[in-house]
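Hi D.,

Good news: the full-assembly prediction came through. Inputs first.
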Amino acid sequence: MITGTALVFGDDVNTDLLHPSTFFSLDERIVRQGFLGQVAGKEQAAREDRARIVVAGRNFGCGSSRETTMLALRMAGVKALVAVDFGRIFLRNATALGLPAFEVQSAPGFAQDGHPLRLDDSVLYNDATGATLVLPPPDPYLQGLVDAGGLVPWLTARGEL
Amino acid sequence: MSSSLTTRLLHRAATGQTLSGSAYFEIRPDLVLGHDATIALIVKRIAEQGGVLHDPDRLFLVADHFAPPSTVDRANILRTFLDFAERTGFGTDAHGGEFHMMQGICHQVLVESPRCRPGSVIVGADSHTTMAGALGTFACGLGSTDVLAVLLTGRTWVRLPEAVRIRFHGALDPALRGKDLALWMMGHFGEGGARYRALEFSGPEVPMDGRLTLTNMAVDCGAKNGLWLPDAVTRAFHAGQGGVWPEDLDLAEGPADAYVDAIDVDLTTLSPRIARPWSPANVCGVEEVAGERVDQVFIGSCAGGRLEELGDAAALLAGRRVPPLMKLVVTPASTAVYREAMSRGWLQTLLDAGAVITNPSCGACGGIDKGLVAAGEVCVSTSNRNFRGRMGDPDARVFLASGLTAAASALTGRITDPREVLT
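Then the structure:
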């Protein structure tokens, strides 16, 4: 089971907003500082490290492929991503780093910032509203990566590294 | 032949490895593109895995983002990348891959190489890797960890995108450029409308530089890849780079049922377009925003720093000067572009008009260096993304347009419809 507070976004939120290129660095402290660096209204959330589940609209994480965006999300406590759909490379980056990502049409409106969420056995529970959201199973390849903890452990388990 | 060209190229690269119930299958890419920024992120992890690359001859490395570096942090990132390149054997000429030190933006340097062979399958650690599709390749971006896996195993996993056929026909108006077509595409699809799809373009009227802009920005409407179906223009361009045409490959368009959508665009119905802040899909006719004060014009990036844009700017600005407070920043996309523009006298013309010419690199596009914009400023840029804060202060406003529109706006200090200056 994954628990976390909701971090809610609209449509077409790109990686330059989620993590401005100024914070592209090999220094993890700088990478962490860039979390939500250009997202209006989330200044408080940007500073906190806590378990969270992202709930977003369409095309979440579109734009640049910079993996530092995903590293920053992970460092700030993001445990799972739920969106209508994701930017293609962003989805690959999430699963390559072992972060579960679910595409579900009815994600918008399911939660507001700060709502306590639980993800258990493919169902997302909103403990503030009592609402539930059934998450469609990811592709077996993507699920395999997440179960293994990411692409490198997955390849290692297959004897390819 | 019953599939899109994208499907045929991916099937050709398939190794046969599949997973039960999965839409993903394994491929062996012909070429792996990497640059200083995104490769530096995986250098340590590659070393932890033993550091032995599967096939360094398939590697195409370019120092372009932080090259030359403008901060200490970026100097260290570049150094990490260069140390990796040296360990991989790029310190000597004997290597079978390619390495380019500060020769321009990786996407441009790649298409100028004979290795960017039509029909090949290319992956790269950068979203605009899609640009190489202008030569009839399958080319898509990956994240750094995905590229780490390709470097260590020679393979990666993909699924087949649905394909959309886009045919441009009719004559191209003298004021229209590939960028206007790309902005039409962005307006048509929105930022996510082509998500996960393959866009397969055709149209003999569109020159190679414009095609490169279109396939570059295919990713900006969400596409997995953008591919221009090879024709005589492709053949001439690739031959010009010393490339050998793959006569054994069928690079033709698929039959109608290979495409989930077919769009026919009459070029005579299009007019110069511009993308307003803060989305490349926030597109309107240039005339709708004409007259707005402009503080900076940026002619550069992998989407718009080629001979087409530099030539348009030189032709328009010849014998004229931009307003005294105008910042006109010109960043050629590659050293080859820089040299050719120099030999044609265009750089002299641009300098005389008041421009500054910076070194070939990504430059101001990603807010990296040499041309960031301040709060309240307006910039007209030939680049591909005008996201809030990407090119400088979050309260700067960046408009995306063709080199012709950008140059016309530099000349007047206002957003200017190029048709007004051309007639």
